[in-house]
## 1
Amino acid sequence: MMPRRTGYEGVALVAPFTVPYERYSIRNAQWFAAQALRGLLKEARLDKSQVDGISLSSFLLRPDTVVGLTQQLGLSPRWMDDVPTGGASGVMALRRAARAVQCGDANIIACIGADTNHVESFRQGLANFSSFARDATYPYGAGGPNSMFALITDNYMRQFGATRADFGRIAVSQRANAALNPNAMLRKPMSLDDYLRARPIADPIHLLDCVMPCAGAEAFLVMREERAEALSLPHVKLRGAIERHNAYAEDPVMIRGGWLRDRDELYAQAGISPDRLDVIHTYDDYPVIVLMQFEGLGLCELGGGPEFVRENTLTHDGTVPHNTSGGQLSAGQAGAAGGFLGLTETMRQLLGTAGERQVKDARWGLASGFGIVNFDRCVCTGAVVLESAP
Amino acid sequence: MTPPVFPRKNPVLRTQRMNLPPMGRGRVAHGLTRAAAVGDHLELQVCEECGAVQYPPRDACGTCLSPELDWRKQSPCGELLSVATLHHSNHLYFRERLPWRIGVVRLDTGPTVIAFLTESVVPPRAAGGAERTRVQVLLRLDRAGQAVLVAQPIEELNMNLKDKLQMETGCSPRGRKILVTDGKTAVGQAIVHALLDAGADTVWVGFSEPWKRGEEIARLRDVPGVEAVALDLTDARSVAALGGELGGKVDIVVSNAEVHRTESISSRPGTDSARAEMEVNYFGLLRLAQAFGPALKGRAADGPGHAVAWVNLLSVFALSNLPSQGTFSASKAAAWSLSQGLRAEMLPHGIRVLNVFPGPIDDEWNQNVPPPKLSAGALAGAMVRALTDGVEDLYPGEVAQEWFARWKDNHKALERELVAGGL
């Protein structure tokens, strides 16, 4: 018999840290990564030499990788990782770091998602994003991810009867959450009517379905629980984690993601059912994907997303507190750091440090990731369940 | 008088410069370019081991990992699954021509493609509806000369000439001002008529020695839309003068002037007749390209009726030398090579270079060549069709098609077969 997959017992997440977002920056991604590490050390009252593992996710760090950062920042880690999966990078960095600290390959690992945003950088990243994108999507209007998700949204609306107002409910509630997040880029109140009247970008996707690219970083530390306790560091526990890539490739247009395939294992690891979750952070680079995560992660059935958002309120004080930071739709998408946003916000909620947008008595939180539009859909999916430490 | 197809240009306005569609493609993806360049139907990679049809193009079978992927003709039929209308683009070419409609098509052979949609494609109905939207996926070359997929309704034979995708991937003579370099031959006369039948606005027809062939000029003189001009391709000053006069107006140049002698290397001593062939077939093209190329390049985005194409009348004997017409073949091979250089210079400016490779044409110089021979009318018709479809290489007629297939299959076999005689 195959041995059961090892659980994540004893893995602690510490010190969620955000380098404030800027719409555009003339600084390098390296600057944001460095400030993230500096912030982590300050939050956790650690010396640089105590960090013996580093995991980095960034689109614009090139020509450097995490290797270059060791010399730039004077680190001598015994474990490193470079996770190139954008919106799925936070979950994947955490999964890898968790195993490393469990095994003792590293004691304290800094997981960092950092990117800059120059005026031209988003556009320049598109033409050669992948060989499939270069050959088979970019030459068809160069719409970038907007165009691929417009096709996915159009199909989803037809298949499951979703309306623009359903997507609007997600965007509007996240904007309300963002009003309570001082670091969110977009905090101006937004009504459903504002959402519906936004100009078309890649119909059926309109302006307020799109995230705003920006510069910034998100980061956290991973270590064993004993170490966090010894250092008197408030922490949350990793209770379950899954990832899956290129799932359901047989669906001609994406209607579901890899979460659906592995979610039972996720909740089995955590020992809870989805209705126990107090706060949920999905990857919200287009609202249609939020619905697929609700469905894939067992909050509702496949195709039940539209009804689910009609029946629930998604603000931090709602029936399903969701993307309480405002998500990328309102907080902004700081490149690969967007894949960390849900994680750091879940940590804050479980640590009770989310300020005005704190979800009361939050114990169980879920953060999911979704990344890399290689051709006609994002390929990488993942999710983690976190629990507050008593 | 019928009004012009395209509105007259306001001479005060700045001439728009051409911004090309994205040029980037991987080497494997150029399998599509190869098929699109000759106007073939959809070709995709097929795994020789497991038979899986692949898209997007790749280096190994996505099913069984075999490296043996062969480009093969595919049914173009499929079902349209979803539609998006782009009102924003990150690329200047698209941005200047918004909106664009794209869709996901599941081909009957399996793979899913993203394609442009013609205006006549109706979006699919809501799920559960019995109606399915059937489309055919065509391979076309875009303004950058790169292959793109275009979906049109399955029952539609040809794209509407006014459809944006037809305008952007084809080079229809409709409404255009065209120079045909030689009007004295049967082929030249047929080309002029075919262009006019296809809706050309004006055709300037070159005559090298107007005093010699009054009859042919007279035949075209009274045809509306035709204007005879003096053009001697062996005379640099004559070519430059016409370039100065017409360069800023011409939308399509048809380089059809040729000297054709039926000499082998040993059938005639000396180089006089070979030199005469080269003087027109090769140097004439060079002079013409120098005189008209720059103007064409500058007008590739000059309003809706912009400059669009350059056509070279070559010969299928350019591919492999026909010994009995050895010097003619060589001059056409030289012109073919030069045309590739011309294409390399024109393509970055959005001008298509169409090379026409006919087999023997049914004219006085091929008197002793056995049939089938290509009639002037058939050649002209195929040329106009190829222009309209935006094709890059045309092999009109059965002889040319077979010759091209033999050459592609085994060029050494073709050489040996020609030693043995015949075509």
## 2
Amino acid sequence: MITTEQRAEFRKRFRYNVNQRLITDKIVKIIVFACVIVAIIPLGSILFEVFKNGSAALSIEFLTQIPGAIGTGEGGIGPAIQGTLLIIGMSSLIGVPIGVLSGIFLSEFGDNRFGKTIRFFNDVMAEFPSIVIGIFAFLLIVLVLGNFSIWAGTFALSIIMLPIIARTTEESLKLVPITYREAGFALGIKRWAVITRIIISSAKSGMITGIMLAVARIGGETAPLIMTILGSSQFFAGFNGPMDALPLRIWRLSLLPYESAQAQGWGAALVLILIVLSINVGVRFLFLRNRGKASFWHPRREQKWQR
Amino acid sequence: MAALTNMTESTSALSEKKKYKVIAENITASYDEVVAVKNVTIKFKDKAVTALIGPSGCGKTTLLRCLNRMHELTKNATVTGRVLLDGEDLYSNAQDPIIHRRKIGMVFQKPNPFPTMSIYDNVAAGLKLNGLRDKAVIDEIVRGCLQMVYLWDEVKNDLKKPGMSLSGGQQQRLCIARALAIQPEVLLMDEPASSLDPIATQKIEEMINELKKEYTIIIVTHNMQQAMRVSDYTGFMYLGDLIEFGETRQIFENPRNELTAKYVQGQFG
């Protein structure tokens, strides 16, 4: 039992060190704020650099033309933009459905040994260096088919997407409270309909964030593309041939000793950032508008039981 | 159990008027190693309200969840025994629980409207997701169900608003409307008023009184006054056993079991 004296002592401790707590609170706030600033500085300065150095290169010609002769500063990055859009699109066509379905499987049916094994390999795969996946695609597709191709690049990038999407989908679905599932089941709704129509719509925001992370990740991948689509200075000429992509073009331009090439490299970097950003905003707008409370623009409101 | 059977048979006047809608036989339910319901047999009358009372952890909610096969959805949960709905065994292998759950509505302890759906869609969810497409019919059912729970007048101009924008009491009535929309024959209510204030509770109780003309209602409650007010029959459970079952008046005014007497007098629980 707690004695009266002890209780008095506890009260003293719990109630009369308010000042100290306020100070601790302030200190922690300052530390957290400082950390945010430290994290934002590199991000902000990268964006600033890219905009500063890249915006000068932007022009209709730059966006639509094939690269000019080396060192002249002429021509553009048209094929690279085309290639990046094409390869992001194709990889997403493969990676998003398989990734989302795997995530659904892991979350809804993966509470067993098989699920645990899949989850483990999924996590290992997510941490694979992308160059290794590039080499894998090179051995499996490029060597077998005999040439660098868009197929090989799509294969490599969709493998990179898969584990990210599967994991984020699983985590988002698991966050949906069991009460919503129960409410669905109690209405006699089939399991599949409960998952697709109730659970997924509640988890949509998180799932889309995961998909967008994956898109941004493959949008910037360079190493596996060197091993698969190689790079080219021509527009699309068939899925079985090499293709250019923005990261590859940025890499090549930045290695050149000419100032005009480096300026084009900055321009290409800016274009890549803008593409990823606009895909992100566009997708959120398409899928999360009219949701009222669970979108990028309007974060979910606090649930209130009692008014 | 013999006493129980005698007792229910002695009220033959009532049983002639009202058949048994749901009969649970020898239900034993457990989570992992913990047995929550021990060999309970209980019969629920049609178009009547049956209350299950008892202290926390006595198994009343588990028993309720066995009646629409929700219990087995919990991990490591097991059930044995039979539940007959109009004489059909819910637990026989030939029966898909989904079909039964459409006949047995359920209302949960905490209001749980679907968070991404509007008020209208919440009520329509069970219809739409079970394949009903006819918009006119859905409109009519949504309106009718919201009227049954006395929510229509409060929300008729805001049907597009999210279900979550309602107050707690309104949300719970919305959930009841959602359960009623699939036109069940039995309504299971798991402490439907426990998170509500007295006024919202009163509204829900009035609604139960109205609903029992059409439905078989089984309600789990902690609140003995509530059981007295709304129920026709009461079952008292303790540590997984059904201690006593009978007409509500008899249970509260003239309990046969000592434990029941102590509980309804508020001596423990």
## 3
Amino acid sequence: MNPFSTPVENEVVITHEDVDRAHDRSRVATARARRGFSSKARLLWLLVGPGVLVMLGENDGPSMLSYAATGARFGIGFFIPFVALTFCMAIVVQEMTVRLGAATHRGHAELIFDRFGPFWGWFSMIDLGIGNFLTLITEFIAIRAGLGFFGIPPWAAVLLALVVLYAALMSHRYWTWERLTLAAAVFNLVFIPVALMTHPHWHAVGHAFITWHPLPGFNKDTLLIVLADIGATVTPWMLFFQQSATVDKGMTTKDIRFGRIDTVLGAALATAAAIATILATAPLFAHQMTADNFQAAEFAQALEPIIGRIGASLFALGMVEAGIVAAITISTSSAYAFGEVAHKPHSLNLPMGEGKSFYAVLTLCAVAAAAIVLIPGLPLVYVVLVVNVVAVLAMPPALVFLFMLVNDKEIMGDLVSPLWANLLSTAVVFVLTGAGVLFGISIIAPNIFAALGGK
Amino acid sequence: MKNDETLNLASNRTLVLSSLEHDQLANAKKHPIARRNLKGPELLVLWALRVYVLFMMTVVAYQVWIAAH
């Protein structure tokens, strides 16, 4: 049975979205038709995007803060290889969204709605919407804090971020939006020179990668950091965003190999930035300083005596970049999901007139989150950790639907997951679900962890 | 901005039909995909998900309540 209905030739109606996407696909077809290394490189350049954006987008304000807290609290040790492992888990999960998007040309929320019914469709959309909105708040907190390091007042910082977000949208063209956001996202690598300025103990880094030692003490605080680091790399919005972006970019089954390369490349860049952040704040651990009193910009202030004003400024700018890129991608993910479930036009190729609801959702989410950030007295660190933990808890349902969809032969045909991919993704689902349940136990019965030798 | 007349130029139509697969067209996506016929184990998974969601909401609500007090 073919669940897709195909329009006959004389029913075809051409839209702006189709014409723009066709231009992009035409360039891909031209590059693919040529031979040689330069043509392959051009093809990669044309097809790279959703994977790099999703991975660097997930290295967002809360994530970088979480990595900074990890470095300051635990130094160089277990968490260095652990973070690399979480990005490997992210690759396993995100690769499935590439296949789903390329094979079905439908977004994740749309597939859940159509294949499993309105209840799960709306549940997924609302679940994603709440999680995204909470996360957006923390992105603007990171932006405000990062720019606050340079003396920029909160209202100006938030306004600047909204202007950047809106400027990326103004082209009404997926390709332009993607390239502008990619250019901003690459700035995430600024944490690497910051790490180098701290003169990391490379022998200890190598030892940590090989032995996973020294291990942190097993207690509730450690568990929360572990969950936060998992939440920093694998979250529901990533599934929805990459699949929708793959569809909006117009990728087909012929592009899946490049979609995988795109995802692995993004994960490699994001891993480098994440580990660099841990290394950058590790000196705070060596100086017997704790993360308890630090927030996004305060990490930069704390590092200033160690790496100087330039290094601290780069660290603060990195936090700003992380917040801005994530604000762009996460608000876009919400707008995609709303359009898919409400069956409204949803594409970054839409002119404003045809995509009113899409752009309205995107803008409203960003503006509302930005406004909330201006409320004084928000408990920053707590909000950030809760957001990551909520994301971890919300992940299993999203993963189960992903798993069922990617093994749905009616929509995937021969692109259903092979056995090895199913084994890997099953293991990831178990790890993430286990992490969520452990967190639940730590909340309901914290004494259990105390009995095991923790606090 | 392109208007409807320029949109339906033969050159655009040719480009779109030669570059995009039929189910990539915006108009084709207005047709929903058929509902999946769920069987026993899949229904069980969905019920397990409902239980998990309730558990998750309880834990988060409890945590928020603790934080508020």
## 4
Amino acid sequence: MSTRVRDLLERLEYGPAPEDPRPTLRWLDARQRRFRLFIGNEWVEPQSGEWFEIRNPATGELLAHVPQAGPGDVDRAVRAAREAYPAWSRTPDHVRARYLYAIARQVQKHARLLAVLETLDNGKPIRESRDIDVPLVARHFYHHAGWAQLRTREFPGYEPAGVVGQIIPWNFPLLMVAWKVAPALAAGCTVVLKPAEFTPLTALALCELILEVGLPPGVVNVITGDGRTGELLVQHPQVDKIAFTGSTEVGRRIRQLTAGTGKRLSLELGGKSPFLVFEDADLDGAVEGVVDAIWFNQGQVCCAGSRLLVQESVAGPFLEKLRARMETLRVGDPLDKAVDMGAIVAPVQLERIRQLCEVGRSEGARLWQPSWAVPQEGLFFPPTLFTDVSPASTLAQVEIFGPVLVSMTFRSPSEAVALANNTRFGLAASVWTENVNLALDVARRLQAGTVWINCTNLFDAASGFGGYRESGFGREGGREGMWEYLHRPARPAPAWPGRGWSAPESHPSPSNRPEPTTTPPVDRTPKMYVGGKQVRPDAPYVRFVYGPDGRLVGEVGEGNRKDVRNAVEAARAALPAWAAGSAQLRAQVLYYVAENLEARAAEFASRIAAMTGDLSLAELEVRATIQRLFSYAAWADKFDGSVHSTAHLQCLVLAVHEPVGVVGVACPEAFPLLGLVSLVAPAIALGNTVVAIPSQRHPLAATDFYQVLDTSDVPGGVVNIVTGDREALALVLAQHDDVDALWYFGTREGAASVERESAGNLKRTWTNLEPWDWLDPASGEGVEFLRQATQVKNVWIPYGE
Amino acid sequence: MATAAPKVTQAAAVRNPGTELDLAWVASVRVNRSAAERRARTLPTRRTVKREWQVAWLLRAVRCLDLTTLSGDDTPGNVRRLAHKARQPVRPDILQGFGLGPNELHVAAVCVYPNLVPAAREALRGCGVRIASVAAGFPAAQTPLRARLLEVEEAAHAGADEVDVVISRAHVLRGEWRALYEEVRAFREAAGGCHLKTILGTGELPTLRHVAQATLVCMMAGADFVKTSTGKEGVNATLPVGLVIVRQVRDYAQRTGYRVGFKPAGGIRTAKQALEWLTLIREELGESWAQPETFRIGASGLLTDVERQLSYHLTGRYSAAHHHPMP
């Protein structure tokens, strides 16, 4: 020791500081390093008879064997969850709360075992698993013990979503278990969880804690395996909902596989999150922010701030500071308590990172890495900075999922926002400036589910987390996340005779032409309504509209894909001003629509009666429509966001309700006016713009309605109406990548194709089968509609001078 | 792993001559408190040293120590006792256990009131431990400037090697940067060949941005060191404040080429805290800064805990305070 000390005294180096893995290795040994499937609170042998290896990515050491669950195993697990569901879903709130509380306590008691196991399995630094992952796991269970306790009171009229299949990634193996399992159990769902094939060990360790707390059998089941197992779970008919976190590519596939099955879906997918540094930022603070953004968990973070955007005026000094900081990062043994970056999770991932860096270089981007070398043994990759990158570069668009930062510059706040939003993704963003005006303005304009101001990669169970755009849909955490595991029970709906789907479909023939009169009425030509203008169909064909007796009532244009295209463009163009306008203004417009409709109530009723046959029902429909407009005018400035109570001190977390964007609406067949307004009104009340396909059989109520819109100060493009074949037009909307959401009320087949085709841009779909009781406000309006019209952006604002 | 030291052209021995007061630079300083606090909070969790490395780091901390007594009841007697501890800060048998001779380790300086400089000087003659004297209306700086300057001159006269002056916090609070600049310039002149440490009294500065700006102005005015606290304010040296100061020190070195020292003082009592401060310097400024020429820890009680920790490394047994000679 002595000569060593003398030498070290002059050099002041960091020595090795390893966390002792032996207790954890003994824990593995005690289980013969061989795990089974966790089904119905039993450890069961896989019917598949297949096993695979789990290795430590830092050393290549074999840690354990786990089973590859096959079809029989998945079925067994789902059946266990299904059997457990009736009792668990009726278990009193307080009892479920006790279980969740007990799991949180168990996690804390076994914190070090879980942290070391996570690091061995995943390769992340022990500092992160110890200080970030495991504490957040405990926090998540505590928080959701609270939601279990309060579920019935806080979500009246809602029931648990049923049996949930959950598929999680390898980057935060245990934390993702918590994010998935805690809200499911709080809601009263039962769970079949599949951890990632690279990193299943902490999920299996958690099963032991679940046994210790005595959770009833079948409430949580864990099956290991690769993508094949996941696909079996997704396709199992007894699963009511799929919750998935992982790549956008797999998310798309899950969207397609579940289309038309009635399975609910929440997807938390990839990102290419921007990190914006303005010239008045604390540059040293922002440099440290970059470290937390892209060199946290080796950059294997879905919300990693991987696209650095720096204002030109400070780009030089900022990058110089950043490079100096990169030199002081330490990469190595993840169990060492003094390393910043550990190992990349698997050889295939390391290879992908290398390949993408090569692509970047070949495209002319400039690569910079620190002067020191990473360890030769194990899967390590150095922190990497690319400059000379433009939005057209592959590296600026593709998610690398590694410690690779690409940087670009901007000249103005508007250009910063434009560059930041120039991506398919919308998971998160980080904004650095000392100017609160600029910070909040930019935060509102960024398309991202989470915006961190002067901070990054902060998480808390009380705040929702999830994406905009192709980063997925649904939220995890807080009240926002609880909705994903709850649903409204199906309501009985009356079948109205002569209406919509049950109306007779007639064909044109001379016999059902109107009687000729001496003075013919002036011919009426209902048109499409696009961008505030009445327009003819792209291809002038007509669709005949008949009354219940088969008489011809009128004609509408036969819309085609170009009409839909034009309508979407008009809706997109109208969106920014409408979304940014005041809620008071939107309310005013809706009241005015109601006012003008009231003035023509009798005419609308008789027109509806001409198509449907029942005048008194038609009058009822018009009255209900006026009331509905009042409801959403009322809600326009009342469906507020909230301020979350997170565990972070001195930090406001604002859950801001924002419009989803351009919403396609395929209206129900029955109630041609009320159905249309019941969908359009909530959408525009909250700042969305709409392309509506009215009732296919009774479209004249909608074409009359645009005259009301025209006289009611509805800005052009906010509501667009395209008449024609509802199924065909809905499909065009589903396939349109500039449509952000699509609400469909119609047939099972129509719903399936809408869901399947929505996978292209992962637009949010809301599909419902007719009939629907539109006259009853309990089912025809309310928070469910408003939530569909909203996406929540969580803005984190730390404060203190 | 190599650390990129800032590109500093001047050798450490060259004193910072200061620069013109650059008010635009001062105005451009930005500090985000929550980001600084987050960095300071996680820094000790990102780095740790164990075993021989920790021993080496603790010995380095002793080398950088300004062993301090600043009390109304100080007498030549207790200052002499402090001086003896300064010459022999760690028990010779412990040093020997680490392969160091009894004369191979002493603290950087003792820090006393001006009246006690002669006593310290007497006791420290020829041993390499420097004498630092506080001055300039310590700790509040609320006496006439003429009196404060006289005090600085007297301390230098009495044989101090270094003078730790307090700045007028009022100048910082009122944004009177030129007044602060001129005050520190005057102190530097009065101190003559003595090294000048400017004490910011950060516990009495309202924001971290004020701390950063005051640091910068002191450096422009020719300070050799920037020191956090007198030890008499309600809040002493904290890691966020230290972080903000050393980042200014780094920027100043990069722009002017002059290395200014940093001295956290007040409230540093444990070996663990000493390691955290060394880590801060190592990470933000680089190893070369963690030398007595550019880094000091001002403390009185710290040494005992460090000695106990060293003893533990040697013997594997936890040590008691009374097994180590008190200062």
